User: Which sequence fits this backbone?
């Protein structure tokens, strides 16, 4: 029938499993047409031997047997048969079609396998590189912290006149150096936090927080910078703001990043507003930081919370930073059980909305966790020694 099927196949016939396997070892075949019951075994024995062989050329296997035995079909397909045909349906035309289709199916399956292996290898490589980046973040930030703390301490000592008198110009220059150290320390800490967040090692130290006080404190920090930049920084806090449960330092970090960005991306003469009000359901607080800055294009707005993402059409002066601030904000807000989103119009400004629930899902965080967090957050204790 195969010869008459018109597929132009070179056919070899063997009557028992042993002979068939021996032949398959000797030369590659495109397709094996197999009776389920053979004199020395079952089709599934041959199938399992064939499928377990580490060979590049695996033939398609079509199993055949009498009508009415569906369990054989199931067994054959489970064992790796490419197709099944009932003996009663065997005609040259049908057999030609089944064999041709099975060979095609086999080739497609092999291509798919090859694709899958390539994807798996690429995925493994990406995971390895990601792990390397995380450990690089961790090492770099850890290694930078110690000398940075020392530079800051010594510079402060000189600026404060502890090591001898300094004139006002020298003091001003040294104060600039101190604030540059502080900025660098924040960046190093951001890198350190990003590495800890991705390995799930950043936990919260929760307590009841008065957000209006936290906003006041943060805005005090930013006011001199806003004044220098000619930007009006204002606040609007609802009178009845519920207390929320959260990590004060971490939420301050979120607010710091949002206000810092708002100032960075707003031109002189613009306005930045920080507001806070209760959520409509009364079960939390909505914090908003809006600016009249450059804004963000719609297609970029979703990506700004990704690690290391920076909008590439912002000028290089505006792009100073590392692209981890908003990533950290999102992770910290989500650890609190809240959410963060942005609404923006290119050229007109942006508004970041942070919604925080009254109770953090981490309310049960233990003293041990809190202590571990606090000690991990603390900068290395470098005692400046006299030169
Ligand atoms: P960066 O250190 O670059 O500021 P962020 O993660 O804080 O990193 O922000 C990611 C990017 O999102 C920024 O580089 C900027 O392109 C965009 N962005 C963030 N905040 C604003 C904003 N208020 N106005 C316009 N673009 C913003």
Assistant:
């Amino acid at each position: 029938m195969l010869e008459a099927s018109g597929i132009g196949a070179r056919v070899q016939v063997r009557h028992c499993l042993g002979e068939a396997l021996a032949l398959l070892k000797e030369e590659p075949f495109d397709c094996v047409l197999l009776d389920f019951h053979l004199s020395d075994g079952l089709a599934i024995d041959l199938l399992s031997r064939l499928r377990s062989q580490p060979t590049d050329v695996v033939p398609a296997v079509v199993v055949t047997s009498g009508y009415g035995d569906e369990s054989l079909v199931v067994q054959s397909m489970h064992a790796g048969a490419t197709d099944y045909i009932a003996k009663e349906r065997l005609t040259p035309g049908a057999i030609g079609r089944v064999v041709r289709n099975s060979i095609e199916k086999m080739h497609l399956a092999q291509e798919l396998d090859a694709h899958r292996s390539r994807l798996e290898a690429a995925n493994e490589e990406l995971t390895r590189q990601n792990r390397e980046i995380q450990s690089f973040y961790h090492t770099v930030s850890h290694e930078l912290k110690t000398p940075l703390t020392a530079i800051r301490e010594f510079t402060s000592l000189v600026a404060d006149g502890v090591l001898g008198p300094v004139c006002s110009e020298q003091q001003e220059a040294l104060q600039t150096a101190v604030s540059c150290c502080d900025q660098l320390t924040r960046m190093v800490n951001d890198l350190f936090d990003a590495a800890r967040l991705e390995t799930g090692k950043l936990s919260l130290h929760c307590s009841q927080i008065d957000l209006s006080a936290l906003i006041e404190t943060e805005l005090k920090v930013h006011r001199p910078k806003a004044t220098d930049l000619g930007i009006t920084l204002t606040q609007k806090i609802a009178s009845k703001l519920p207390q929320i449960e959260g990590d004060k330092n971490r939420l301050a970090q979120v607010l710091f990043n949002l206000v810092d960005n708002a100032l960075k991306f707003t031109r002189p003469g613009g306005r930045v507003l920080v507001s806070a009000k209760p959520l409509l359901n009364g079960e939390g607080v909505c914090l908003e930081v809006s600016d009249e800055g450059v804004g963000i294009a719609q297609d970029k707005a979703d990506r700004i919370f990704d690690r290391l993402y920076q909008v590439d059409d912002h000028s290089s002066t505006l792009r100073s930073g590392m692209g981890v601030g908003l990533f950290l904000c999102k992770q910290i807000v989500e650890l609190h059980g809240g959410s963060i989103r942005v609404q923006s119009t290119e050229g007109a400004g942006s508004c970041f909305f942070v919604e925080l629930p009254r109770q953090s899902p981490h309310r049960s965080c233990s003293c041990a966790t809190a202590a571990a967090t606090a000690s991990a957050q603390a900068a290395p204790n470098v005692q400046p020694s006299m030169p």
